[in-house]
Design goal:
The structure is a homodimer of 473-residue chains. By secondary structure, chain A is α+β, with helices and mostly antiparallel strands. The first copy, chain A, folds into 3 domains: 260 residues, Bira Bifunctional Protein, Domain 2 (BirA Bifunctional Protein, domain 2); 95 residues, 3-Layer(aba) Sandwich (Rossmann fold); 72 residues, C-terminal domain of ProRS (Translation Initiation Factor IF3, 2-Layer Sandwich), CATH 3.30.110.30. Chain A contains 14 helices and 23 strands. A 7-stranded mixed β-sheet of chain A has the order 3-7-8-14-11-10-9, with helices on both faces. The first copy, chain A, has a 5-stranded mixed β-sheet with strand order 16-15-17-18-19, with helices on both faces. In chain A, strand 5 and strand 6 form a beta hairpin. In chain A, helix 2 crosses helix 6. Chain A starts with 12 loop residues before the first helix and ends with a strand. The mean pLDDT of chain A is 96. Chains A and B meet through strand 2, helix 2, strand 3, strand 4 and strand 5 of A and strand 2, helix 2, strand 3, strand 4 and strand 5 of B. Strand 5 of chain A pairs antiparallel with strand 5 of chain B.
């Protein structure tokens, strides 16, 4: 049953997206322009993501901290590239109580400055290193155009900030956290990703280099989904993060930062969902199983309760829909909300000691024996997780191209867009030329030497890199 | 061993407090005036509190959501009492990117306005009710004088916001959440509290009434520690939160809010800690047991690892201090950081298959057999939790007084301050008169009829209430 409140993907993908986030009660628009409300379903999804990621961060030795939300302008201005990157999108606090502030404060757009300032005061010797910190918080970037989860003036994220006594350890950290993100995307969100280094133009303001996790939406558009930055000693020299090394000499720290945001919810939707609403991979779904008694009948209710208890005992997040709506309405609601498995408990099935189980991703129905419920649920949730990953992987493979000319790129991006691998000379002008094709941008540089005898597909000059290109979300 | 960086409580309680928060690495001062940094130890404590409270909120049927951080001035101004209560301490965002905003935004000081605005759009019929929401977030109040955890310009908190179809359900919610806080304070923080209704002067701006949880610090000063507000239909009439009731008539919702903040960390410190540093109740300590091998010796390390594994298996948060510091230094560090139990693994004890176990609260040492470790740790952590509660309860009892004259109150507050129960006429003037005694304020109204033939201890007129008074932190 198609959901009447949701536009078809084939009609208008962008409209479909906003219809899905609204219909599944992930967010609502607020009275504050450019800011969205996280409704219970949306926040529960974020909490689940947080809990998985936070655990991964802690297992890799990181500790959570919390820095102030305000950044005095003067502190922000210390690092030239950072301020020129972020100043145009800062929100400024200029009044506190009834008084004008002497110096205006930026609402943090990111916290390199405050972490650097803190490290400069607390790191004294190599024994204090490394410091492996992370914080979960809200940030603000004053975007002109906004879309729920994908681009909004306030969003929620985590930002990791670390300082190290040497370059190799800091670079290893930058790569380790990229791997953590990749694992999270692939194993939990069921989203296959490509990873690599950003070009100079696309890297984070102030970073030596930026590593990125790039995902492909089902319509072939690319989404930068998480990033990990290596700063070298750039910030530590500006913010004076010095330490005494083992040779009793002063040295500057080597620094990294890495972040992921509520935008991941947007990726999840655009990779997996369908015309009926949300489709969530079981490992990240806040509620994995819904049980729907077809009628409000004592026997059905008692069996439903029994099934719920045994599933919850096995660790499956399960609930029974007892609302006074029709069974059909409950089915549709479970579908639009993306509950991975639905168990229908009806009188006729029960006569045979059976229930019906329906998978959200492929809508397959199975009639199973009551005493098979736990086994089948376990198997089907596992299967659904890998099927969803494989489906997304197939889309990514189908939409990954090699191109040797601008015309080819145009052709691809106008027909069935995706990731296009192509050689590039390293000049920004050629990147801008690519951007004219429906906003195609370099996603990341491919680690390969095969560019060595090749030419830039834009200017035909000697290639410096092979790059993955894609339409920027 | 007294910690050299910590002032004695008997010398200067306020200085002792800030010394403890710094020495135990809970917070550091930031370059942003009035805002503190939550260092790993401080944030871990907050995370632990969050996880316990969040679980209690969810078990009582609440869902987490997230509202924007910005409140347009115009929306904030709708409810007159609220704005007059909060406007003097709002921080204002007046610029976004390079542009002046047409309307300035307050950084949320509390979110009744945005929740009300959201409820007004989403609540249509009694079937939509109740809505039981909570959010964890940062808030800003532009305080002039600040102290870590107790009063700071930005702080972290949770704010619950609920709407109901009738008064009795909303009032029951207001009381239920007070009980949740009380349980949290008593069972987890080991802090005995008194609860009751605030006077008109002390209630939340815009509330019909405010219920409060009040704790007594070890020096006899009172701390308002969590509050639960009943709004009746006050906000719902201003923000137009209407619904169709069962009789098919329009009615306005009944509303509540309730909140607790990082100030609870301040209460924890001032109730339990000592001249050596932090003392944490086991149930809220992020790390419950530290194992300290006296030397870096293979056998000691292997036994330590074994103890750690078996304690962790039983669910006790345990770590081994492997740093290259002296054993004495490690003991002192575990003490200042408030690790509830320390296990010393030394060669001489091991010869007898023994280890030494030291409780942080009373510093009692026990030499125990290796195969008793799990039993003793389990018992001692339990015992420590209840001992800490009882010690605080004794202090509270010892410092709870009945007074029948202002002179008595003066005498008490100047000698051994605490909670003073005394009759009051209900007039604000008399409250202000009490305030002259070292900032004594009404904490809450006692639910009793025994005021009926009594007189106000300030003005001698007919009493309207019996009230608990205390020096305001």
């Amino acid at each position: 049953m198609k959901n009447d409140t949701i536009t078809l993907r084939s009609d208008d993908f962008a409209k479909w997206y906003t219809d899905v986030v609204r219909a599944s009660h992930l967010t609502d628009y607020s009275s504050v322009k450019g800011c969205t409300i996280f409704e219970p379903n949306g926040y529960a999804l974020w909490e689940k993501m947080q809990s998985v990621l936070d655990d991964m961060f802690k297992r890799t030795g990181h500790q959570n901290v919390y820095m102030p939300v305000f950044i005095p302008e003067n502190l922000l201005k210390k690092e030239g590239e950072l301020i020129s990157g972020f100043a145009p999108e800062c929100a400024w606090i200029t009044q506190g109580g009834n008084e004008e502030l002497e110096e205006r404060f930026a609402f943090r757009p990111t916290s390199e400055t405050l972490f650097s300032d803190y490290f400069s005061k607390t790191v004294k010797t190599y024994r204090d290193l490394p410091k492996l910190y992370n914080q979960w918080c809200n940030v603000v970037r004053w975007e002109k155009e906004t879309r729920p989860f994908l681009r909004s003036r306030e969003f929620l994220w985590q930002e990791g900030h670390t300082v190290h006594s040497n370059q190799s350890e800091a670079e290893a950290e930058t790569h380790r956290m990229l791997d953590v993100y990749k694992e999270f995307f692939e194993n939990y969100l069921a989203i296959p990703v490509i990873t690599g280094k950003k070009t100079e133009k696309e890297k984070f303001a102030g970073a030596e280099y930026t590593l990125t996790v790039e995902a492909l939406m089902q319509n072939g558009v690319s989404l930068q989904s998480a990033t990990s930055h290596y700063f070298g000693q750039k910030f530590s020299k500006v913010y004076d993060i010095k330490f005494v090394n083992k040779d009793n000499q002063f040295d500057y720290c080597y620094q990294t930062s890495w972040g992921s945001t509520t935008r991941m919810i947007g990726a999840l939707i655009m990779v997996h969902s369908d015309d009926r609403g949300l489709v969530l991979p079981p490992k990240i779904a806040p509620k994995q199983v819904v049980i729907i008694p077809i009628k409000n009948d004592e026997k059905l209710v008692s069996i439903s309760e029994h099934i719920k208890d045994s599933l919850q005992e096995k660790g499956f997040s399960t609930y029974i829909d007892y609302s006074d709506k029709s069974a059909g309405f409950k089915f549709a609601e479970a579908e639009v909300n993306g509950i991975p498995l639905r168990i229908e408990v009806g009188p006729r099935d029960l006569d045979n000691n059976e229930v019906t189980i329906v998978r959200r991703d492929n809508l397959e129905k199975q009639v199973i024996k009551l005493n098979d419920v736990i086994n089948v649920v376990t198997q089907q949730l596992d299967k659904m997780q890998s099927d969803m990953f494989n489906k997304a992987l197939n889309n990514l493979k189908e939409r990954t191209y090699e191109a040797t000319s601008l015309d080819e790129v145009k052709d691809i991006m106008n027909n069935k867009p995706g990731f296009v691998n192509a050689h590039w000379c390293g000049n920004e002008e050629c990147e801008l030329k690519m951007k004219e094709i429906k906003g195609t941008k370099s996603r990341c540089i491919i680690e390969t030497k095969d560019y060595e005898h090749e030419k830039c597909i834009v200017c035909n000059k000697k290639a410096k890199h092979k790059v993955v290109w894609g339409i920027q979300y």
